[in-house]
Amino acid sequence: MSPLAPPPFRHLLPLALGATLAMLLSACGGGGNESGPGDAIQLSSDSIEVTSPTPACPNGIGPTTYVYGGQPPYTIYNPLPKGMTIDKTSLTDAGEGFTITFLGSCMVNMAVTVEDDMGRLATLYVTAENTPIASD
Description:
Number of helices: 1
Shape: elongated
Low-confidence stretches: 28-36
CATH superfamily of the domain at 42-129: Immunoglobulins
Radius of gyration: 29 Å
């Protein structure tokens, strides 16, 4: 064999390197979120309690609730559209908020659900009560 002749297995070197690289890449779990599970979706408040100063159930604009964490966009589900309105049905970014307007219906622990793009849920419990008529 002449000193200038190529090694006999020279054509196998790229194949061996490619197989080694494929094994190393497959060992890292297949990609995805390498830092672990995503952030949990959170609300600025877990509950809202509004009491009307009169015997009638609350009617008017309530507080704003802000959404953090999770994976935007967020979808907001109103469980009682005849009892309250929500100014937005979706939010595009973390830190945005939605405001409830009460329509004169009383409710206790009505669950407004917020869902992120990954299907994770957060719940805001809404209570709207009236002031009972005082009896003599």
